[in-house]
Amino acid sequence: MAQADLSATDYKIGFGTVNVFLCAWLKRNTFTKRRTVIMLILAGGMAVLAIMPALPLLITDFRDGTIPLVMTVFFTVFGALSFLFVSSVIIYVISPVLSYVVQLITYIFGPLPRRKNSIRIDYEGLHKTSNGQASDFAWNKVHAVVDTRSSILIFTNRNCAVMIPKSAFATHDAADAFAQKALEYWTDAKSVF
To answer: What pLDDT is recorded for position 85?
Structure first.
């Protein structure tokens, strides 16, 4: 494969490419072990804060015979499950939606759509130029390479990716060759370490 097939120059990142990145980011980062642990801690904390003040009253009412044991257990379990549900909604729905909206606003009002970008890959790594500033990333430092229908995303860390629209290449085959070679380089680098 010729070196020219492994580069794209003077491309701009459009709204569609940013949207693809945000969807890939959400997919990679929403249902993770870390978020699940945070959600369980949040749910437990909320349940303790809400149930603890009411628990002495429930126990007193149970002892006095005002509320049967079944109702006391029901209120306690229902309260804990309610907080688990609320925590899940906060962590898995509200947080990703807010992240998505903030990134879209940043795209609309930020400099990203106006920057000209160039990218080149070789066995050593990824070489990017944006607004005259060069950045190099070794393949063993790359977190993931994601090939979608319209874009190639090379995640340089958990939350950032070099976004390359496939329209930046001369042909669709050149874009596919670039994505395949990037994935190959990244896989080779990961298998060494």
So the answer is: 85
Annotate 78-111 with b (16+ C-beta within 10 A) or e (fewer): ebbeebbebbbebbeeebbeebeeebeeebeeee
Burial of residue 26, with CB atoms counted within 10 A of its CB: 0-12 exposed, 13-18 middle, 19 or more buried: middle
What are the residue ranges in the chain where pLDDT is below 50? 1-4
Phi/psi of residue 104, each to 5°?
-65, -40
Environment class of residue 123 by beta-carbon count within 10 Å: exposed (0-12), middle (13-18) or buried (19+)? exposed
Q: In terms of Cα–Cα distance, which of 121, 120, 117 is closest to 131?
A: 117
How many helical (H) and strand (E) elements, i.e. helices and strands, does the chain have?
5, 7
**pLDDT 10s digits, 18-33:** 889 988 888 887 777 8
- In the block, tokens 């990142």 appear at 13
